[in-house]
């Protein structure tokens, strides 16, 4: 086999393909071209400061200014930045991925730049067919003015331009709109420049519309000096309405030096689902990176929306979201700590405000308190739970009841609440989100408090058996009515309990319920499935209808001589107990209730 001499080639880049890739897959919309231009202008000003220490002094007190002029077809943006020399134009502008912002020699300043990838300028090709950069470098006193003109077919030219075209150091980038493209309209450009750049530390004006518009407004609202705390609060409320679209319930200052983060967390004025996608506004070195960041605060903090500026978190290449790395995780924790501090401070200093906060966001706070014993201790007096003593705080409840029984589900709680209350047994409904975990955490805060899981035995223990004679006298009645409730898998017993006003109680534990669901599924299943379900049948205890012998109605029912009518009456008592337990009706229950109701009607109306 003959060997051929290897030849060296350079990759060819299909610019159209690349622009297509950027515009359809990297950036969410062509609108980002304004951000890329602003970013380059701001970076150029930052770089100029590094090479020209007298730059700021020459500007006196006013910030550097960046000017955008557009008539809808052509747009130019001029900055007084570091500019570019001829070799730099070849090296940086004509090389995709080439960036001066990674240079070793300006390592110290590198972290000050917004750009880093060397692809930003290409974003302009999503709206323009021609890009012209005219630049005079600030690095040499009499630098020549260079002009680089690039077309979207991938070709470019570099020429020298007359010195008068750029008398001062800096750069002008000019775009020629693609035919039919309206991204360069003055109003649109002003809107985008304001959206991305309102907090930038340079003055940015947009000309071409009815009047020139200054789109920047610095320093950021959280850093401005205000006449009084009230004036500050009002201004921040107005800012929240403007950028977030809601009047905040409260405003919390955020300051995480670790991640160079400063900003504000606004408390939502309405309840929100913990699973709702949060949307925070994140600025990177004062440029808006995204208004839909969802990974900036811990999940439990779903009651705030933040506006922040960071100088050190990393953006993704599209620069539309934050890179989810270790630094962001540490930042999330730090922001979480500041939100916790705010809640503890409110509890100590402003209980009325805390109550109005809780009336909206109690669920979020409960979620948070599960993992934070200090916060739980601080918040416990303010958090409400459903208990057999009504809606109350756990410390108050624990003072009146020992031990505290915890019903695991809403069903269980409803079944026993009435009778437990009458017996002086303290039960908390643990069926609502987070409540069971918080009740169980209680002994950690106060070791005096005992919490026990509610077992059915606790309640049935306070259902007193009848004396033997009375029990015997009811045998005939019980036999008749048990047969009537057999089809719904319910046993009937008679006990004495308080309150007298409750005629019957349906006691049902989870095992019995599961077995009934299985039996119902079996009844509805075809042969194959019916067989399988039957094979897992358990002999779990049945649900029990406990009739209260102290209740006058029950006494009268048990004395009815006609077994048919007694059966109908007990079916009605079952229906009432079932409804009181708030459990869903199975088809057999509905049929039974229907029948007993019709039978009663018939009995009342027959002559
Ligand atoms: N207005 C400007 N003034 C001076 N130099 C500029 C200007 N615009 C672009 N450049 C030079 O061109 C290089 C490439 O710019 P480009 O926007 O493509 O990438 P970048 O800003 O370095 O990085 P990124 O892709 O993250 O934006 C820059 O690194 C910078 O050196």
From TrEMBL:
Keywords: ATP-binding, Chaperone, Nucleotide-binding
Top-rank lineage group of the source organism: Bacteria
Family matches, as Pfam families: HATPase_c_3 (PF13589), HSP90 (PF00183)
Binding site for ATP: 36, 40, 79, 171
Classification via InterPro entries: HATPase_C_sf (IPR036890), Hsp90_fam (IPR001404), Hsp90_N (IPR020575), Ribosomal_Su5_D2-typ_SF (IPR020568)
GO MF annotations, alphabetized: ATP binding; ATP hydrolysis activity; ATP-dependent protein folding chaperone; unfolded protein binding
Keyword Ribosomal protein attached: no
UniProt family annotation: Belongs to the heat shock protein 90 family.
Protein name: HSP90 family protein
Species for this entry: Glycomyces paridis
Lineage, top ranks: Bacteria, Bacillati, Actinomycetota, Actinomycetes, Glycomycetales
